Amino acid sequence: MSLTPTLADWQAKAAALTANLEIRAFIDDEFVAAASGETFATVNPATGDTLADVASCDAADADKAVTVARAAFERGDWARLAPTGRKLVMLRLATLMESHRDTLALLDTLDMGKPINSAQSDVSGAIGCIRHQAESIDKLYGEVAPTGDDTLALVLREPLGIVAAIVPWNFPLMMTAWKIGPALAAGNSVILKPSEKSPLSALYLASLAREAGLPRGVFQVLPGFGHTVGKALALSMEVNCLAFTGSTGVGKQLLQYAGQSNLKRVYLECGGKSPNIVFADCKDLDRVARHAAEAIFYNQGEVCIAGSRLLVENSVRDAFVDKLLAAAESMQPGDPLDPSSFMGAIVDRTQYERVLDYIRQGVEEGARLRMGGTSLDGPGLFIGPTVFDGVTDDMVIGREEIFGPVLSVFGFDTEEEAIAMANNSDYGLAAGFWSQDIDRIMRVTRRLHSGQVFVNNWAGGDQTVPFGGVKQSGNGRDKSHHSLEEYSELKSVWMSLSP
Ligand code: NAD
């Protein structure tokens, strides 16, 4: 294989890998079939080929995993292990992920259709997260409260118990790492439920976690559907926390399940319809147009922080949209295994039909289709970059999360109007804008209702900076020490001192 793998190299690797996939659940340190014996097919959306029939867990498997997780927690060989000890095991896991990085990337590419280059950067992000959280845990101090001389009041941080991590398919490994990194570092037992559309990298990760030395039952993986195993975990009286990334609709259901069961903590990272605002005073229209195209078409638009609403100041709108179309032209989908592909396949037929439905609706609503709008020929599920201009707030394509390569362009005349349009959404995950005016930068940054604001960039991020939303985009924060703190409980200890 050459130093930089080619399409042929990846195809050869894929053929070898798919002949030998782990398809069983990981419970109590063993790979096992689902209790029911049921399986579900996971399909490569770029070819239509079934990759594997994977164990379809349900409530019985959830019960078993919860019992095992509780026993592991009470045993304490992880929960009460000194943080430096947990750090070493997690650093070993990160090193193992590093040495299996091509396999992990390939599994996500085959399972959900993302280009291999993006999958590789996801693996780097996942490793970075595991390392960061491992390195953080032995630097998190408790407190001695400033009480009087007759008492010593300590504020201790303790793990929550069992964390069920329920994750989506668009960044399978990276979303997994954002949950299990801090939850494990904090000393919890973790049960991971990957999406039924992309279970393979999670199962591979389980074998690496075992090799790294995570004690029995501390990390388990239950592949299966949301309404079966996911719901069972969410309703469990023993699970202490749901760490969720996915749609707003399912997030709302999880809050109900928590209320119906044991008031478990529910951290939600949900959907978005993020505004990307181009002011006429931005520095370089060509550069901004390229970034605006990447902001929506990266990962086929299947990105929670996709810049799916592009708001352009009317004085530069026509010129800007022409530049954007030119940039998008070079982002056509291709074979996900080809390192030169910018976009890959849409995850499955349901999502593919959903995106095409939105495109039809956009045309019916009277938005101007400037590019794309069609699927490509072949057995794979490919949709080209699609751009609608003249979109207004009352159109469905301007309001709802499409989660595909479809951009809605709006025009505005004033800063005030742009801010009002940007904030006119149920979501508040990300917002960005482009301007060279420092006064405007401060004004607009403060007024955008969003968990993260990108100024003169799109999708800036680092392990040190929290990631999460406001409004119906959720209430949790992934990454940074803020996420680590979410997975621990404060315990106040009062000690009376003799005079
Ligand atoms: P989804 O909500 O359909 O599924 C997410 C997970 O929840 C899956 O594992 C699914 O099996 C499970 N699930 C579904 N119903 C359930 C139920 N009743 N009980 C328990 N679990 C259940 O979302 P998706 O289609 O997998 O992912 C796309 C969504 O994820 C988009 O809305 C996207 O914006 C969002 N997302 C958000 C972020 C973020 O950080 N905010 C990141 C990535 C994706």
TrEMBL record:
CDD domains: ALDH_GABALDH-PuuC
SUPFAM superfamilies per record: ALDH-like
PROSITE patterns on file: ALDEHYDE_DEHYDR_CYS, ALDEHYDE_DEHYDR_GLU
A single MF term (Gene Ontology): aldehyde dehydrogenase [NAD(P)+] activity
Positions of the Aldehyde dehydrogenase domain: 32-493
UniProt keyword terms in alphabetical order: Oxidoreductase
Source organism of the structure: Salinicola corii
Similarity comment: family membership: Belongs to the aldehyde dehydrogenase family.
Protein name (record): Aldehyde dehydrogenase
Entry superkingdom: Bacteria
